[in-house]
Design goal:
It is a single chain. This protein has one domain. With 126 residues, the protein is an alpha+beta fold. Helix content is 38%, strand content 32%. The chain starts with a helix and ends with a helix. The longest helix has 20 residues.
Length: 126
């Protein structure tokens, strides 16, 4: 009986320590850029050999991959703080104001905002 009471008494403490460790997932912007890049490539029926991998380079999100014909796939995205982008308390920008440019080889296939791409593809999924 004493063991049962001890276990029951420790359950809330275990939950508290786990809850205290919960934090927002880092990388929301780069994930939004990666998803939008893949959506643009799919919408434009680009045959992908190597899926774009995205990283933060200085103040620019850059995704690089390749098409089956050997052309480089590249997307670049930048948060537009000067146009009203807001940062969360964790330093993340709102994806709504991230500009995105996607090129395949020398051809630009998209130039717009990440949120536009994500919203359009979310509508199609319904």
């Amino acid at each position: 009986m004493k063991r049962l009471l001890a276990v029951v008494a420790l359950i809330p403490l275990a939950g508290c320590s786990q809850i205290a460790q919960l934090q927002p997932v880092a990388g929301a912007e780069v994930t939004a850029v990666r998803i939008a890049t893949n959506d643009v490539l799919t919408d434009n029926r680009v045959p992908i050999a190597v899926a774009p991998v995205c990283e933060l380079e200085a103040d620019l999100y850059v995704c690089k991959g390749s098409a089956r014909n050997g052309d480089e796939i590249r997307s670049e995205a930048k948060s537009l703080e000067e146009f009203g982008a807001t940062k969360t308390e964790y330093g993340a920008y709102s994806p709504a104001v991230i500009s995105l440019k996607v090129t395949v080889g020398a051809k630009e296939i998209f130039n717009g905002q990440v949120e536009t791409v994500l919203a359009e593809n979310a509508q199609e999924a319904k």
